[in-house]
């Protein structure tokens, strides 16, 4: 622990990509970017921020291609960052540091300022995630920032308060298999409420519109407390339900409303009420309706992260990382850390709750065990509260050893039964100290990669192999900080099945200690449950949501015999015009399409746009210049157009999703199309 405080020094920018030294062998199919964000600047001149979570956000990414790795990092140029650099003080209230007067405001503005949700911080240091084909970063206020995943440049700010009237929002949105994105928000200006936001799958990918503009509130839950609301960091989602936990760490709105006058930080407005039960709110995704049966855990706990949730045999399984209390928040005050006073008690624990899905509790005897799943150790029994109303009392079961956090799973199993969760020991000094771990949630057994004492792994990212046959078939990517002088930080690549090290990419320069992030694939491969492949007159991709079909031809990579997609042609359903002659067709297969365009769903309109552009996709490293075999040929439907590879998302997202595009008329009429900024000669 003697060098532990080095994790919390100011991070340095490396604005231009620098090459990393690779030891070992990175799988040839792995191509993309591990993008992460976290607190990076803690000292503003002679002023030190109070808490780790107050640090000014810094973005960084490892780009992987052809077995080589580059690294770059940039500070998020938020309003909070720019004003703090000018004032050498935080001008917006952060989690543990109250705001100081804005030097750009006059004395009258300062005198009459009170709590204003529009004046909350936009220091989005918490998470980087994708919504449709765009990348955003967020903290837990109403502000979200779009960023350029290629350059890490800061783009426009999105105000969710103006769009959907929420004052706070979770930084962990979830996307279901149908392409809709959900998030949890809260409001207090018109009563204390929690809200579920839904962003439907974009039906037109050609406009490059802000997906948040289509966000709508689909469900509202009133707070159980008269003058407080529960702190939340994430929420859960199964196939049919959304799960929100109202835990007893409460934000006192009276303190919050006077925080600027009283010089309070956000953490100063929080209160722990261990006498309160943890309430599990279930909402039906189909209607937004809240389930009337009350579910509660009698023993209080605190949580940051949901792991997963799924239904099985009229039960809802909910897995969560819990703490006995929110003392974890007190550990990360920088004055304690820098004084070598980091506390190591209250380790996190993965716990499983099982909720029997019941219509009502009328006539059911008190104390009866309601969990009927074979071999289940978690319990659910009917109790009565102080008013005599019945509720389902939940008792969880511990899964595996305590001490790991930052849980991630194979994203294809989100909301569905799963077996493995990956995480790290973080800064905990227990069983998973300096480790990356994999826990089997069925048996509780764990596999571990363990570094040396001064190496601190960040949140892992699981990347499935293109032809994966098992849930854990792929790699785990982890950014590792080594706080020893003259020892490099590095990107760690692990075999997800064995947790053995495959490679590491060492960086000459400091790597920040990030919180959360995402993997952005460069190469295009099919990944969308809404498309089903059959063999009727050649493979047919049928979009089950629009009930319209597009003929698709699949071909294998020459000489590989692989069943995964290598190339495909597109037919336009309206005109039945063939875009290109097919390659050799493989056997019919089932495939998915979610990781293309930053995991944004390919919609029917996207497919039609590609067809109109006379475009062939060349995933897995194939392109029109290097691919073997006969070149596709066919009628030039669009005069002056050229075949070209769709730009890889992390390099040319802006060109594909740029505003100002207009749709063409039916391609069979030979109309010119402006789409994706691609023009023919003479235009």
How many runs of DSSP E, i.e. beta strands? 44
How many angstroms separate the termini? Answer: 63 Å
Secondary structural class: mainly beta
- Determine the oligomeric state from the structure: single chain
Tally of DSSP helical segments: 10
The largest β sheet comes out as: 6 strands, antiparallel
Summarize the structure.
The protein has 683 residues and is mainly β.
Overview features:
single chain; 683 residues; mainly beta; 2 domains; 6-stranded antiparallel β-sheet; 6-stranded mixed β-sheet; 10 helices; 44 strands; 8% helix; globular; disordered C terminus
Give a description of the structure:
The protein is mainly beta. It has two domains: 4-521; 523-683, no CATH class. The chain contains ten helices and 44 strands. The strands form ten sheets. Strands 2, 34, 35, 36, 37 and 38 form a six-stranded antiparallel β-sheet that branches. Strands 18-19-22-23-28-27 form a six-stranded mixed β-sheet, with no helix packed on it. A five-stranded antiparallel β-sheet has the order 1-7-6-3-39. Residues 106-115 and 523-683 have low confidence and may be disordered.
What topology emerges from the helices and strands here?
Layout: E1 14-19, E2 21-24, E3 32-41, E4 43-44, E5 47-48, E6 56-65, E7 68-75, H1 79-87, H2 107-111, E8 127-131, E9 134-138, E10 143-147, E11 154-159, H3 160-164, E12 168-169, E13 174-175, E14 181-187, E15 193-199, E16 216-222, E17 228-230, E18 236-237, E19 241-246, E20 249-252, H4 253-257, H5 259-262, E21 270-272, E22 278-284, E23 295-297, E24 302-312, E25 315-323, H6 328-331, H7 334-338, E26 349-356, E27 379-384, E28 390-395, E29 397-398, E30 405-408, E31 420-424, E32 435-440, E33 446-450, E34 455-457, E35 461-464, E36 474-482, E37 489-495, E38 501-507, E39 516-521, E40 531-534, E41 540-543, E42 548-555, E43 567-572, E44 577-578, H8 596-599, H9 604-612, H10 649-656
Parallel strand pairs: 23-28
Antiparallel strand pairs: 1-7, 2-38, 3-6, 3-39, 4-5, 6-7, 8-9, 9-10, 10-11, 12-14, 13-14, 14-15, 15-16, 17-20, 18-19, 19-22, 20-21, 22-23, 24-25, 25-26, 26-29, 27-28, 30-31, 31-32, 32-33, 34-36, 35-36, 36-37, 37-38, 40-41, 41-42, 42-43, 43-44
């Amino acid at each position: 622990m003697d060098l532990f405080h080095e994790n919390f020094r100011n991070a340095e920018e490396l604005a231009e990509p620098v090459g990393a030294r690779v030891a070992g062998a990175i799988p040839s199919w792995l191509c993309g970017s591990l993008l992460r964000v976290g607190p990076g600047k803690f000292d503003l001149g002679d002023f030190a921020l109070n808490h780790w979570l107050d640090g000014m956000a810094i973005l960084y990414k490892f780009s992987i291609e052809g077995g080589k790795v580059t690294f770059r990092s940039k500070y998020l140029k938020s309003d909070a960052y720019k004003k703090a650099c000018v004032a050498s003080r935080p001008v917006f209230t952060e989690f543990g540091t109250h705001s100081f007067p804005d030097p750009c405001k006059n004395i009258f503005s300062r005198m009459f300022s009170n709590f204003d949700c529009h004046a909350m911080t936009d220091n989005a240091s918490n998470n980087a995630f994708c919504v449709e084909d765009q990348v955003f970063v967020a903290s837990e206020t109403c502000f979200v920032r779009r960023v350029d995943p290629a350059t890490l440049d800061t783009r426009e700010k999105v105000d969710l308060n103006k769009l959907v009237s929420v004052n706070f929002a979770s930084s962990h949105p979830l996307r279901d298999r149908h392409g809709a994105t959900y998030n949890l928000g809260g409001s207090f200006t018109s009563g204390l409420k929690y809200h579920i936001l839904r962003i439907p799958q974009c039906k037109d990918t050609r406009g490059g519109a802000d997906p948040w503009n289509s966000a709508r509130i689909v469900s509202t839950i009133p707070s159980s407390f008269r003058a407080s609301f529960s702190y939340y960091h994430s929420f859960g989602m199964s196939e049919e339900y959304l799960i929100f936990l109202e835990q007893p760490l409460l934000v006192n709105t009276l303190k919050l409303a006077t925080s600027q006058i009283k010089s309070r930080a956000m953490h100063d407005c929080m209160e722990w009420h261990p006498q309160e039960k943890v309430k599990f709110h279930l909402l039906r995704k189909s209607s937004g309706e809240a389930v009337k049966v009350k579910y509660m855990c009698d023993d209080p706990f605190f949580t940051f992260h949901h792991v997963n949730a799924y239904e099985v045999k009229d039960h809802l399984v909910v897995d969560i990382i819990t703490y006995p209390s929110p003392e974890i928040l007190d550990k990360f005050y920088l004055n304690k850390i820098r004084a070598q006073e980091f506390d190591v008690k209250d380790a996190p624990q993965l716990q499983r709750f099982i909720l029997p899905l019941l219509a009502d509790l009328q006539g059911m005897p008190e104390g009866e065990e309601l969990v009927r799943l074979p071999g289940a150790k978690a319990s659910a029994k009917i109790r009565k509260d102080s008013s005599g109303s019945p509720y389902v009392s939940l008792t969880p079961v511990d899964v595996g050893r305590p001490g790991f956090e930052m849980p991630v799973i194979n994203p294809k199993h989100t909301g569905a039964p799963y077996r493995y969760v990956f995480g790290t020991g973080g800064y905990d000094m227990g069983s998973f100290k300096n480790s990356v771990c994999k826990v089997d949630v069925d048996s509780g057994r764990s596999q571990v990669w363990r570094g040396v004492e001064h190496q601190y792994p960040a949140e892992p990212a699981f990347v499935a192999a293109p032809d994966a046959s098992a849930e854990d078939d792929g790699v785990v990517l982890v950014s590792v900080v080594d706080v020893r002088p003259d020892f490099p930080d590095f990107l760690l690549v692990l075999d997800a099945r064995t947790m053995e090290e495959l490679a590491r990419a060492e960086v000459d320069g400091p790597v920040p200690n990030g919180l959360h992030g995402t993997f952005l694939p460069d190469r295009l491969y099919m990944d969308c449950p809404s498309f089903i492949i059959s063999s009727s007159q050649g493979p047919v991709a049928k979009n089950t949501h629009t009930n319209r079909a597009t003929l698709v031809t699949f071909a294998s990579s020459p000489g590989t015999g692989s069943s995964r997609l290598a190339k495909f042609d597109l037919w336009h359903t309206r005109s039945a015009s063939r875009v290109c002659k097919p390659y050799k067709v493989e056997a019919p297969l089932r495939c998915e399409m979610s990781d293309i365009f930053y995991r944004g769903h390919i919609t029917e309109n996207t497919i039609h746009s590609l067809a109109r552009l006379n475009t062939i996709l060349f995933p897995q490293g194939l392109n029109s210049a290097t691919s073997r075999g006969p070149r596709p040929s066919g009628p030039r439907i669009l005069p002056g157009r050229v075949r070209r590879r769709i730009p890889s998302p992390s390099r040319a997202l802006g060109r594909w999703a740029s505003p100002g595009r207009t749709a063409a008329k039916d391609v069979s009429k030979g109309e010119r199309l402006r789409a994706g900024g691609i023009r023919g000669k003479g235009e």
